[in-house]
Amino acid sequence: MKSTVEHLSPTRVKLAVEVPFDELKPNFDRAYKKIAQQVRIPGFRPGKAPARILDQRLGRGVVLEEVVNEAVPAKYGEAVEEAEVQPLGQPDIEVTEIGDGDKLAFTAEVDIRPEITVPDYSSISVSVDAAEVTDDDVDEQLTGLQARFGTLTGVERPAKSGDFVVIDLSATVDGEPVEEAQTTGMSHEVGSGQLIEGLDEALEGMSSGDTKQFTTTLVAGEHAGKESEVTVTVSQVKERQLPEADDEFAQLASEFDTLDELKDDLRSRFARVKKMEQGSQARDRVLDALLEQADVPLPESVVQSEVDVRAHEAVHEFDHDEARLNSYVESQGQTREEFDTELRTNAEQAVKTQLLLDKIADEANVQVEQNELMERIMMQAQRFGVSPEEYIQQAQQANQLGAVFADVRRGKALATVVQAATITGPDGDPVDLSELFGTGGAGDEEAPEAEGADAAAGPTDDASQVADADSDASDPASPSSQVEADADADTEVVGAPDSTTRA
What we know:
By secondary structure, the chain is of the alpha+beta class. It has three domains: 2-112, Trigger factor ribosome-binding domain (Alpha-Beta Plaits), CATH 3.30.70; 121-126 and 260-292 and 353-494, no CATH class; 151-241, Chitinase A, domain 3 (Roll). The chain contains 15 helices and 14 strands. The chain has helices spanning 25-38, 51-58, 60-83, 135-148, 199-203, 247-253, 259-293, 300-316, 322-331, 336-363, 370-384, 388-397, 401-420, 434-437, 461-469; strands at 2-9, 12-20, 87-99, 103-112, 125-127, 151-154, 164-173, 176-177, 183-189, 211-217, 227-241, 422-424, 483-485, 491-494. The strands form four sheets. Strands 6, 7, 8, 9, 10 and 11 form a six-stranded antiparallel sheet that branches. The protein is elongated and about 100 Å long. The model is unreliable at 440-503 (pLDDT under 50).
């Protein structure tokens, strides 16, 4: 076999391959055997018709087609290996010559992983917010804990923020009732922002028996993006009364005997959360600085794949109704063109992040241990509310286990960068994040993992666990991963999402 490679751009190559027919003898043998099993020729048992008879009865073209279909993918793989390029996605293959008895020639154009020069990340310096816990922070945590044990008492006064009200809701669009927006006897906390926009503002000042109408834009359901007239009726106003913060409450709400001990524990817990948030902020800012310094050519097919996935997910939220998506986009103060531009920009940033972190992982020889992969799988399964076994099965069916592996590996690569960077607080003093990111380099088992898309926006895995355990920390979003890697870290496929890798 003879092959040549032409670099069409920093991210795309064209392979020209010629295969002498002598090398295709095993392919012809398999082709004749397969075809003989599929046809019935008088005088011959199934599978026993000789090649000469098959050529006479079926034509040489049938055999050549079978040979080409089998040989081209294999020879393409050999040409890729010989050219020492890393393909991304499926190639565009064109058979240019089938000289029966002479040679098979074809070309293959494919996007490849570009050459990337990694910036000196030891020169990166970023500042992060302080992680100090104030007395006010502790008091806020304590109030939240008291609220869990609070009681609701009916009051005869107008509702205010923090009160609970029992309400009936109905809505119309263009005079027609919206069925999914009809409810009665619903309990709602005024000011929580948990229901439709404008409701909390309408409820403040309303008393039991009052009815009010207001206009809002629906964000879900069949009429998402459309203006709706909403009618709300209050049947009860309830005030939440908190238990006294004393030693007795500490014993009721915790394993501690005194209020001071409970406060110390709340301070310690919140300090861990603040430290995790500080680590997440450091990681995000280090990554932003790294991306700003790096020149990463973007393979168009990879970017387009990411754009397509994000566009599909966006319209999927509106039952694949483009008109409803457009209405919603306009209700958010954007044109569809602006929305699409932003979507592409985010996709490009995600692909750039993935490619750069993969390069860093290669240079640092980042390895992913089996237990690290299983920890990520178990965490993802918990987020999706399924068992680890079910998550693995779903991930296998969606061809996503490679993406899970890639996310873990990129996270460890990013931890390497954060370890090497200079992190300072608002006062300019160094911030010690070794507890989160480790000090032992890329292979340090204590280094937390980051996810590889959308500028690695989620917190560390450890941070996620703390956030799950402490109600005051917000849940992270799980981004998709478009550039996948297989178990030995060779890039093979550009495919479907997640972010996160989703099963």
